[in-house]
Amino acid sequence: MILQKLLEKSNYTIIQGNLNVDINGISYDSRRIKSGDIFFCIRGLKNEGHKYANEAVKKGAKVIVCEEDIQLENKEITIVKVEETRKALAIVSATFYNNPHKKMKMIGVTGTNGKTTTTFMIKSILEKEGHKVGLVGTISNHIGNIIVPSERTTPESLELYKLFHEMVEKKCEYCVMEVSSHSLALDRVYGINFDVGIFTNLTRDHLDFHKTFENYYEAKLKLFKESGISIVNVDDNYGKRIIDEISGESLSYSVKSESDYKAFNEKCESEFSTYDINLKGKKETIKVGLPGEFNIYNSLGAIGASLALNVSIESIKKGIKDVVVTGRCEKVGKEYKLPYTIIIDYAHTPDGLDNILTTVNGFKKNRLISVFGCGGDRDKVKRPQMGKIGTELSEISIITSDNPRTEEPIRIIDDIIKGINKNNYEVIENRKEAIKRAIDLAQAGDVIVIAGKGHETYQELKSGKIHFDEREIVDKILKEKEKEY
């Protein structure tokens, strides 16, 4: 594609060279440059893209897009200057892939917790209605039935538009996606007008990046300024604030407050939840294929979005009942017919841990044994909060390591312990040993919750990522225990 065509929707200045350049591809990583590419100098959290402009040229880049003055050794290369390279990257990527986001109905879900489950619920509902759906999220990306690995909750704009393009090529009519606060703050979704935006909740997380809670909220708010209809949880005070601060159409959902879609007569069982709701003037009973009140909230957001898209109530009910989400309140080891229950869950925030442990306390027959830690290189304030929650809501807690990254695991554990006021916990730094200890302690009627990693199949250490799948670990431990009997 000719450079002039790619830049037609951007504000730019030509520093050197000309616009009559044929572009083969786009990159913001100098290591991935191929001959004939355009290179965007992006300011990252760790790297400064402007430093790699000459390296990109040596690899074959024909055009450099920057937001500050740069000097190139090759004077024949075209240099384009823009105000913000991240926004320019999003605009150019959309044009390069022929604006695929405009060829699908776009549904965005944001919030601290519940994004993944809500997106899977909506995907399930739309598929029951007979539609082909793309999904972008934490666990994986989906192009209809094709599963594509996911490296982050919301990809960089270049990868995002490539994914949209592949969805359109495969005839997807809808794209439902998790929209992280990072992606909103870093303009990864810049230029996307969502048909529906959903707000789940806002609790403490990512303050290592956003610095203040107000910044965190303002990042989330961006989604609803770019949404045709906003579906908002008004049991959350920040949800009420969103409705007050946006000018577009909004619909509310709740369990406690008055709202457009309010759940009542809730019943939470160990395998599922049910509730009643008034839809189109008629009382409907909804069965959620996942336990816990927090999944009732997730289903309400999915219902609001689906009704805004004119989906039938029949498909809504079927989709919510049949939804399956890896690593979200996922029972493992069922084939061993254990006298106790083992659950793996992604809960890695204070609110998330509170939700899963409160849910389990609602159906346990004996004790709750929790295994959890906190991630390294992240907000340290939540560590003692999670320590307090874990030990207050469990009969036994085992504090362990969880993606320590560049930090020493025991230092993270020390921070967690600072919030604990009880003596019902053990410290076992090795996560495999912590899981084994929980299983060794389990008695009939107990529930073990292994929290923090959920769908993840790795552990992030100082030396890098290693394979670590808790399903495999539990299976191996249970097989070894079988041999003992």
TrEMBL record:
Encoding gene per record:
murE
Q: Which pathway is it part of?
A: Cell wall biogenesis; peptidoglycan biosynthesis
Main location per the UniProt record: cytoplasm
Q: Which InterPro entries match?
A: Folylpolyglutamate_synth_CS (IPR018109), Mur-like_cat_sf (IPR036565), Mur_ligase_C (IPR004101), Mur_ligase_C_dom_sf (IPR036615), Mur_ligase_cen (IPR013221), Mur_ligase_N (IPR000713), MurE/MurF_N (IPR035911), UDP-N-AcMur-Glu-dNH2Pim_ligase (IPR005761)
Q: What residues does ATP bind to?
A: G111, T112, N113, G114, K115, T116, T117
Question: What region holds the Mur ligase N-terminal catalytic domain?
Answer: 23-97
As its record notes, the protein acts as a catalyst of: UDP-N-acetyl-alpha-D-muramoyl-L-alanyl-D-glutamate + meso-2,6-diaminopimelate + ATP = UDP-N-acetyl-alpha-D-muramoyl-L-alanyl-gamma-D-glutamyl-meso-2,6-diaminopimelate + ADP + phosphate + H(+)
The residue numbers the entry assigns to motif Meso-diaminopimelate recognition motif are 402-405
| Domain Mur ligase central residues, every copy | 109-305
The enzyme's E.C. designation: 6.3.2.13
Record organism = Clostridium paraputrificum
Q: Which SUPFAM superfamilies match?
A: MurD-like peptide ligases, catalytic domain, MurD-like peptide ligases, peptide-binding domain, MurE/MurF N-terminal domain
| A GO cellular component entry from the record | cytoplasm
Entry protein name = UDP-N-acetylmuramoyl-L-alanyl-D-glutamate--2,6-diaminopimelate ligase
Localized where? Answer: Cytoplasm
- Supply one GO BP term: cell division
